[in-house]
């Protein structure tokens, strides 16, 4: 299935920069179980999930960038349309320490107190870089708003769904996804709670 053009519709003027289709990216990822050049396991799993789930998405290659503000400028969309992803460690609850993936609009911050409350904990802090990379399978700056780890649940702020299309790095610093927000919600199945400030 070719890509849907959601990015071209959402960000006029950048359509000529959309260089891969979902079909070719997934074919590359599926080839003999190998990771494509510049890719990683999380990127491969993400592309397969989007393709097999029938998601409306496009891919955008760009210079390596992991900061939300700069990546949004490269992709040509508003900061509010970026899905900013942070791994958070929650402690002080009945179930002990746990980790969650907090996803908020790019123009907002993760409300750590709100995450702690939603998880039944007393405290929350950003996970250290090594733990975040291990749980997400992504290098810092390219964490995706999906979890492929049993110990990592996903919380998404409802403000994300004010945008028709969400943009995020595809578990790589040099490749991004533009994904219909409704398809993100259906495929990631996050707990939608207010965790942005």
Topology of helices and strands:
Elements lengths: L5 H5 L11 H9 L10 H12 L4 E5 L6 H8 L7 E9 L6 E8 L6 H7 L4 E4 L2 H8 L15 E5 L8 E8 L2 E6 H8 L2 E2 L5
Helix pairs in contact: 2-3
Structural class label: alpha/beta
- Count of DSSP helices? 7
Overall mean pLDDT: 84
**Bulk shape:** globular
Q: Please list the strands of the largest sheet in the order they lie side by side.
A: 4-2-3-5-8
Radius of gyration (Å): 16 Å
Strand content: 15-25%
Helix content: 25-40%
Task: Explain what the structure shows.
This protein is an alpha/beta fold. The chain has seven helices and eight strands. It is globular, with a radius of gyration of 16 Å. The relative contact order is 0.21.
Overview features:
197 residues; alpha/beta; five-stranded mixed beta sheet; three-stranded antiparallel beta sheet; 7 helices; 24% strand; disordered N terminus
Write a concise synopsis of the structure shown.
The chain has helices at 6-10, 22-30, 41-52, 68-75, 112-118, 129-136, 181-188, and strands at residues 57-61, 83-91, 98-105, 123-126, 152-156, 165-172, 175-180, 191-192. The protein is an alpha/beta fold.
